[in-house]
Design a protein that fits this description.
The chain is α/β, with parallel strands linked by helices. It is built from ten helices and six strands; from the N terminus they run αααααββββαβαβααα.
Length: 297
């Protein structure tokens, strides 16, 4: 693996700047731990932990343990992180980055407002269907749901992007949360104005009326038992281009590796998923509907 020094420095500087900004605000508890607050001070900073995780998902590697022991602890990255702890100790530190990575993606790496957005949900299975009854790690957190490829047990990633492929909002819930859940849609489309294009799973009369009144129109396909309605040509054209978010999901699942069933801790699973989304925002080439120089009015 060849480490891109420029990209590594860029990601670390962004993480470090973000952590310094967050530290200025009062926070009751950012550590996602089940017990008392830890008193042992880590040998590396929180920004370094975030950077190491983002670089892993940005690299396209599929085994975090190999990446950490051979790359981070090896000669390639040891000079950048001289005080990096052992692999087992780093695994214990990952839950501390969960909330920070979530805020980092949704605030610091948030895309530009364009007035046109695409929304979708993506399944995140946590185990094979044959091992659902024996899975104890995600008991009470994961749920069963059905996607276009069949039933699964796990989580669900909700994502909104703009036409340039930039992430606007994202969060993870249990798989049994419906796409058109009113509270979930309020959280997903927060601070958005204009048009959002989604599939028919997001159809909800209550949500449509609420968002339309505050300046956001939800445009979806229709179900088989619904009457067809005329729509402006611009809305129809953008709805036909909704496949861009499928391309983003495919990159997140394959290159950024946020979808696998080897997690042994729910908080680590959330941290890796958000780190994967953060790594996507640093890719040199991402799906887009327009040329880079083009600006939407």
């Amino acid at each position: 693996m060849i480490i891109n020094e420029t990209k590594l420095i860029q990601i670390f500087c962004d993480c470090d700047d973000f952590c310094k900004i967050v530290e200025k605000f009062p926070k009751p508890k950012l550590l996602a731990t089940s017990g008392s607050n830890p008193t042992r001070k880590p040998s590396i900073t929180l920004s370094e932990c975030m950077c190491i995780m983002i670089i892993y998902h940005h690299s396209g590697m599929k085994c975090f343990q190999y990446y950490y022991e051979e790359i981070v602890l090896g000669k390639k990255m040891k000079s950048y992180f001289p005080k990096v702890p052992s692999y087992n100790r780093f695994i214990e530190l990952i839950p501390r980055t969960t909330m920070m990575l979530f805020l980092f993606v949704n605030l610091f790496r948030r895309g530009k407002s364009t007035g046109y957005y695409f929304a979708d949900s993506k399944k995140l299975p946590v185990c094979d269907n044959l091992r659902i009854r024996s899975n104890k790690v995600f008991y009470g957190i994961a749920g069963r749901s059905k996607s276009s490829t069949g039933w699964f047990y796990g989580l669900k990633l909700f994502l909104v992007i703009n036409p340039f492929g930039q992430v606007m909002n994202c969060f993870i819930t249990s798989a049994n949360m419906a796409d058109n859940n009113y509270e979930g849609m309020k959280r997903l489309f927060k601070r958005l104005k204009g048009f959002v294009f989604a599939d028919k799973g997001f159809i909800s009369k209550q949500s449509f009326d609420f968002f339309y009144q505050i300046g956001l129109k939800i445009v979806t396909t229709i179900r088989s038992n619904m009457k067809n309605k005329l729509m402006p040509m611009i809305e129809k054209l953008f709805r036909m281009k909704r496949g861009i978010i499928e391309s983003v999901n495919d990159i997140l699942m394959t290159l950024c590796d946020i979808d696998h069933t080897r997690h042994r801790s729910p908080m680590n699973a959330f941290a890796h998923a958000y780190a994967g989304v953060a790594a996507y925002t640093y890719l040199d080439k991402i799906p887009t509907l327009f040329a880079k120089k083009m600006k939407l009015k």
